[in-house]
């Protein structure tokens, strides 16, 4: 389970429990049905966990304007190991149609990203090859398959030839935007969205050459409503496979769509992660695949100075935080809390002290979260208080200090080392030095801190006034 999902689930459970206890106050005679409540929580957690993956993915897309750097090697497993392995260092080498090359350059792409170097020649080969590709979010997968689709379309044929599945309506719109941008100099090329709410007349046929949509609607359009003739599809893309299979029903619908396509249709599947379930699904929908993988860039703690501060209550932790701010100048800090209740309390207290504070938490709409992150990036706020929703995948270069107001724990109350790494990995990026301060307020949390130290085999020192000069240099 993704740890950020866990934090969301914590928040949702907290909210659910609260609203339920309010109900009990009003209707004292009604005894809670504890089993029913547990089922309700399970449903709640499941709903938010699956929703959360799609929301996180959308958030990443909204706040990202650049490629994510990755110096790891690309691993390529070819279907036919005897055929030469091609990779390209420039877009010209791909012999794209001039309108497309123009579109690529207009987007500001000078050269292919690491994953694109290998994926593009494979996807554009003659005959086109099937591909399963995995690389971390932001490494250029979307741009790669969009280019592949645009290259294979015959604009003169006024029927769907490329079909792309996305896990949600919002993600489909984002990919659609990339298609529109890249195909800007190709006016005869049209795109249709097969998403809920997009109602067409019965008996109508779609003339757009590219269709992007969610599995349920695409399935209806291909089978029941017959808006699309699946036998004419040349390229089938399954995007965000890891997010897709987290939603119930999407897996079956995708497989049913895939079964309707012609045998020689090119099948492409993309995913940011490759757990077993994704891999099994990928093999079901992509026959005879080539496989490309790019390992995630490892986060390390080498450039981060870690300290802890001993307190005895939440108020004392807050006081310690104020003392820290009083003692040193901190350029920009991210503060992590376990629940959104604590996060909003802390944000309010810090504001009262005169800090410019931004609050980011799970109940916000993705667009709102993206706007908060953008403002923080621009330096409009100097402190960002958040829960785990924000622990992953967000690059805010100027963050010099990360504060764990609450240490990260999993659902059983054990140290959550992965989340610790992701949280404090927000600082000390790109070779710069960073500072992490952990607030410890009980024997239990001291024990958690000790276990985190052991796990990473890195000493976390107690913060002492003698250290202030040293940490000021990092924090400012
Ligand atoms: N060759 C390139 N040169 C410069 N920028 C690029 C290149 N390819 C993609 N980008 C840009 O990098 C960002 C990330 O690319 P893209 O969205 O394709 O990644 P992704 O791997 O599909 O991410 P996600 O998994 O989140 O969908 C986008 O802003 C995109 O415009």
Q: Describe it for me?
A:
With 476 residues, the protein is of the alpha/beta class. The chain folds into 2 domains: 53-294, P-loop containing nucleotide triphosphate hydrolases (Rossmann fold, 3-Layer(aba) Sandwich); 304-475, Rossmann fold (3-Layer(aba) Sandwich), CATH 3.40.50.300. The chain has helices spanning 3-26, 34-63, 98-106, 114-123, 141-152, 169-182, 215-222, 241-245, 250-260, 276-285, 314-327, 340-352, 366-377, 417-424, 443-456, 468-475, and strands spanning 74-77, 131-135, 162-165, 191-194, 210-213, 235-238, 266-271, 290-294, 304-310, 333-336, 357-360, 383-386, 401-404, 434-440, 461-462. The strands form 2 sheets. The chain has an 8-stranded mixed sheet with strand order 1-8-2-7-6-3-5-4, with helices on both faces. The chain has a 7-stranded parallel sheet with strand order 11-12-10-13-14-9-15, sandwiched between helices. Strand 13, helix 14 and strand 14 (434-440) form a beta-alpha-beta unit. Helix 2 packs across helix 13 (366-377) and helix 5 crosses helix 6 (169-182). It is elongated and about 70 Å long. The two termini are 36 Å apart. Bound molecules: adenosine-5'-triphosphate. Adenosine-5'-triphosphate binds at residues 57, 60-61, 64-67, 107, 109, 112-113, 116, 137-143, 272.
């Amino acid at each position: 389970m993704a740890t950020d999902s866990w934090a969301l689930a914590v928040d949702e459970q907290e909210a659910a429990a609260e609203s339920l206890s309010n109900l009990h106050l009003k209707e004292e005679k009604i005894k809670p049905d504890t089993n029913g409540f547990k089922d309700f929580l399970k449903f709640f957690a499941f709903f938010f966990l699956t929703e959360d993956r799609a929301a996180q993915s959308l958030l990443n897309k909204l706040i990202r304007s650049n490629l994510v750097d990755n110096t790891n090697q690309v691993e390529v497993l070819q279907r036919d190991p005897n055929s030469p392995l091609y990779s390209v260092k420039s877009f010209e080498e791909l012999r794209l149609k001039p309108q497309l090359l123009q579109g690529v350059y207009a987007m500001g792409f000078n050269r292919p990203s690491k994953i694109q170097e290998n994926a593009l020649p494979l996807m554009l080969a003659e005959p086109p090859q099937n591909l399963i590709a995995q690389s971390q979010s932001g490494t250029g997968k979307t741009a790669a398959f969009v280019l592949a689709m645009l290259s294979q379309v015959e604009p003169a044929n006024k029927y769907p030839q490329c079909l792309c599945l996305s896990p949600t309506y919002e993600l489909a719109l984002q990919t659609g935007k990339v298609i529109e941008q890249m195909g800007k100099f190709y006016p005869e090329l049209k795109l249709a969205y097969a998403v809920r709410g997009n109602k067409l007349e019965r008996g109508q046929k779609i003339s757009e050459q590219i269709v992007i949509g969610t599995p349920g609607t695409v399935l209806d359009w291909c089978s029941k409503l017959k808006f699309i003739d699946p036998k004419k599809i040349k390229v089938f893309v399954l995007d965000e496979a890891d997010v897709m299979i987290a939603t119930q029903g999407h897996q079956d619908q995708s497989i049913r769509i895939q079964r309707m396509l012609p045998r020689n249709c090119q099948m492409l599947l993309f995913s940011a992660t490759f757990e077993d379930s994704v891999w099994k699904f990928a093999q079901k929908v992509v026959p005879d695949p080539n496989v490309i993988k790019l390992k995630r860039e490892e986060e390390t703690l080498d450039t981060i100075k870690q300290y802890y501060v001993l307190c005895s209550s939440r108020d004392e932790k807050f006081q310690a935080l104020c003392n820290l701010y009083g003692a040193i100048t901190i350029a920009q800090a991210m503060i992590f809390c376990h629940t959104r209740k604590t996060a909003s309390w802390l944000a309010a207290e810090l504001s009262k002290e005169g800090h410019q504070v931004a609050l980011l938490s799970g109940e916000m709409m993705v667009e709102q979260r993206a706007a908060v992150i953008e403002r923080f990036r621009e330096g409009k706020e100097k402190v960002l208080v958040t829960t785990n929703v924000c622990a992953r995948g967000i690059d805010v270069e100027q963050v010099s200090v990360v504060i764990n107001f609450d240490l990260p724990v999993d659902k059983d109350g054990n140290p959550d080392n992965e989340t610790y790494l992701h949280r404090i990995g927000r600082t000390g990026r790109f070779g710069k030095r960073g500072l992490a301060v952990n607030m410890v307020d009980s024997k239990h949390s001291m024990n958690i801190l000790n276990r985190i130290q052991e796990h990473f085999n890195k000493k976390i020192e107690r913060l002492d006034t003698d250290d202030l000069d040293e940490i000021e240099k990092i924090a400012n």
